[in-house]
Amino acid sequence: MRISEVEIHEFDYRVERxxxxxxxxxxxxxxTAEPPGFVLTIRTxxxxxxxxxxxxxxxxxxxxxxxxxxxxxxxxxxxxxxxIWQDCWRALRHTDHFGLGAIDVALxxxxxxxxxxxxxxxxxxxxxxxxxxxxxxxxxDAGGLDGPEAFADYAEDCLDRGYDGFKFHxxxxxRPDVDVAICEALDDRVGDEMALMIDSSSLYRTHADALxxxxxxxxxxxxxxxxxxxxGGVSEQATKKLVAELDTPMLGLEHVRTGPYGTVDSLANxxxxxxxxxxxxxxxxxxxLKTAEAAEAFGCDVELLLGGPSHIHLMxxxxxxxxxxxxxxxxxxxxxxxxxxxxxxxxxxxxxxxPVPDGPGLGVDIDWSFxxxxxxxxxxxx
Length: 382
Fold this sequence. Notes:
- By secondary structure, the protein is α/β, with parallel strands linked by helices.
- It folds into two domains: 3-121 and 361-381, Enolase-like, domain 1, CATH 3.30.390.10; 125-355, TIM Barrel (Alpha-Beta Barrel), CATH 3.20.20.
- It has helices spanning 58-73, 81-91, 98-115, 119-123, 148-160, 176-190, 207-219, 236-245, 259-268, 284-297, 309-315, 368-373; strands at residues 3-12, 15-21, 24-33, 36-44, 49-54, 129-130, 132-138, 165-169, 195-199, 224-226, 250-252, 274-277, 302-304, 324-329, 354-355, 375-381.
- The strands form four sheets. Strands 13-12-11-10-9-8-7-14 form an eight-stranded parallel beta sheet.
- α5 runs parallel beside α6 (176-190), α6 runs parallel beside α7 (207-219) and α9 (259-268) packs parallel to α10.
- The longest helix is centred in the N-terminal third of the chain and has 18 residues, at 98-115.
- It is globular and about 60 Å long.
């Protein structure tokens, strides 16, 4: 069995009542966002196919898939995922490896369809549903999630729906006072019943601001404190200093694209307590699995960045992962979680857990009518 075609369908999403502030997604009742997306199809001569629906950093991901399609994919056995992964990791070494995530996930989907087994089964998965936390859009100033009471009200709603945890993204205009007030309101309203997290998304420009907010979440016993420093977590010395000064576990490396190799350096240096991994951005299911197992060997947990079917299947097989991230959520908006798929595969059940699809491959089907209706580009390598 050999790869005979690599096909990319480009399209755009439609997200109503959503805009950006400084590149961060926020509620905006007067805006409609139309971010780019794509579907990568890897096809063999006998018609076996695997798919990846992309939603994050679409332009560089597509560009990098195109960089390696002819030399490293066409003519290869698609079941040799590890060999393809290694070749593409090296080929994309001067970039951030974005394209490898799409390639690897599509190959896992193809393998599952070939063997008529779910990706979870191929991974040795042992959970059929996952504990899940609600992950919100950023603080807005438009009458949505615009302050402590709004967030506390929404957290109560998420608690009623069964979510195990709640995380908010900080104010995109860098307002630590607002972030602190939201932390306190969440703790007061649902702190005894939900795990609480703050994602500062590398917004704080000074160590003083990061430390100030960190000491508050220490007092409130938050589950984690995520990526506070403006350098994006690249400086191990800066984050190591903060880790040493705070008790709340620091979740880092979301914005660092060094994969499992850089992760072990950060863990060995004590510059993070918990690590981020992403099938979308860090080399697919194979890359994120490498990172998770490296973290496990250090006695550390890994948390998968945002959702998608690939993360549902991967987390079903991980021992050292606490929650599935369901986001980005807002009481007045619907994010792009399920757009491009048939049905709504990324939806919690009545107990607030995320079910693991049990169909072949990723267990989801592409909504080709949606893709064709909103298509903006098409590329075929054969």
